[in-house]
C-alpha cells in the first residue's frame, strides 16, 4: 500500500499521525509524509522522511496566541478585532494555497491520503480529485455531536455544532475552497467539508478514549465503524534531557510538572515567577518544560528546574501533578500517568480538554490569562487532594496502552484501504 500522510499543526498535532505512519512503514508499506518545515527534524528522529508542508507552525502559534489574547482582553476594541481576524484568516488562505500544491504532488499515485484535522478541507478535495480513500485523524470530537458540550441538551449541542460548521464554511472556507476546486476541475462544493468527508465514507479515526465523552460512541454507532475510537496516539520519543531530569527528580520530592507545549506564553519571566511563588508556598518543587516559549533569560531557582522538552511518558509518572495548556497529547499523557491535572488553557479548543478532566474528576481548569499566584496555589491544593489522586489512578487503569492504540489505528487504516480497493 502507498500511503500519503499530510500533517499540519504543532508537534502534538503531528505526533499521532507520525506514530501510525511509522507503524505502517514497519509493516512494509510505502509511506510518503509532509509536515510543517519546522517539524521535519522531529519526524526524521522517529525514522520517517518528509517534505515541507505549509508555513512554519511556531510562528503561526504566536499569531494564534496574540489573536486569542486580544479577543479576551480587548473585546471592546472592535476595529482591532476586525483587523486581527482578517489578518488571521488571510494567513490561513495563504496556507491553504501552499498545502494544496504539496498535496497534489504527495498524493499522486497513492492508495490512501491520511491527514489531520488542520487542512483536512484541501486534503478532502485532493482525495476526491484522485478518487482515493481519505483517512482523517481527530484529537477531540470535531464532528457535530450532542456530547461535546455537556452543559447543553444533546439536540441543541448538535444543532449548534452543525450551524457552526455551515457558518465557518460560508464565511471563511467557501471562497478559498471554490478556488482550489476550480483549479482541480471539480464542481463547486454544496456544503462544508466535514459533512462531505463523512458522506464520502471516509475513515475518521478518533484518537482519544471513548469514556472521555460519555454517550458519544452510542450517538455515532449508526455510522458502522466509520469513526473508531483507538485511544491517544504517541511515539513516546526520548529527549536529550530525560536522564538529567530523572536524576533531578530522584534527588528530591516528586515535582509538579508545568508545560505549555507549542503554545508560547507571553512573558516567561512572569510565568516562572507565578509558578515559583506558588510552589514555594506549598513546599513543592517545579519542573518547567519550556516547549516553544523562551525561558532562556529567567533566573535560576533551587526548587525549580527548566528544560526544553521531556518525554512525557517517562517523566509524568514521577510527578505529583501536571499543569499544562490542555493539548490533547499532553492531556492524554497525564491521564495515562495517573496523576492529577490542572489545565491552564489558552486557545478555545483547549477548553474541551479542561472540561473533560473536570468531568472525569481528575483535575480542574481555568484560562491561563486569568491565572495568578493566588489562584495557582488554590488550584494545586484542590487537585493534590487525596480523592483527585485516587481518581487519577482509577482513570489511568482504563487508558489503552500506547502500543495498543497505535496498532489499532494502523489496523483500521489497512482494513479500510483493503475494503475500498475491493469495492
Summarize this entry quickly.
This protein is an alpha/beta fold. It is 51% helix and 13% strand. It folds into two domains: 2-60 and 99-232 and 402-422, Glycogen Phosphorylase B (Rossmann fold, 3-Layer(aba) Sandwich), CATH 3.40.50.2000; 242-398, Rossmann fold.
What's the topology here?
Elements: E1 2-6, H1 11-26, E2 30-35, H2 40-45, E3 51-52, H3 57-73, H4 78-107, E4 112-116, H5 120-130, E5 134-138, H6 154-184, H7 193-199, E6 203-206, H8 216-220, H9 242-250, E7 256-259, H10 268-282, E8 286-289, E9 304-307, H11 312-315, E10 321-324, H12 328-337, E11 341-345, H13 350-360, E12 363-367, H14 373-383, H15 386-398, H16 402-422
Parallel strand pairs: 1-2, 1-4, 2-3, 4-5, 5-6, 7-8, 7-10, 8-9, 10-11, 11-12
Helix pairs in contact: 1-16, 3-4, 4-5, 4-6, 5-6, 10-14
Can you put this structure into words, describing what you see?
The chain has 423 residues and is an alpha/beta fold. It has two domains: 2-60 and 99-232 and 402-422, Rossmann fold (3-Layer(aba) Sandwich); 242-398, Glycogen Phosphorylase B (Rossmann fold, 3-Layer(aba) Sandwich). It has helices spanning 11-26, 40-45, 57-73, 78-107, 120-130, 154-184, 193-199, 216-220, 242-250, 268-282, 312-315, 328-337, 350-360, 373-383, 386-398, 402-422, and strands spanning 2-6, 30-35, 51-52, 112-116, 134-138, 203-206, 256-259, 286-289, 304-307, 321-324, 341-345, 363-367. The strands form two sheets. The protein has a six-stranded parallel sheet, sandwiched between helices. A six-stranded parallel sheet has the order 9-8-7-10-11-12, sandwiched between helices. Helix 1 links the parallel strand 1 and strand 2. It is globular, with a radius of gyration of 21 Å. The mean pLDDT is 91.
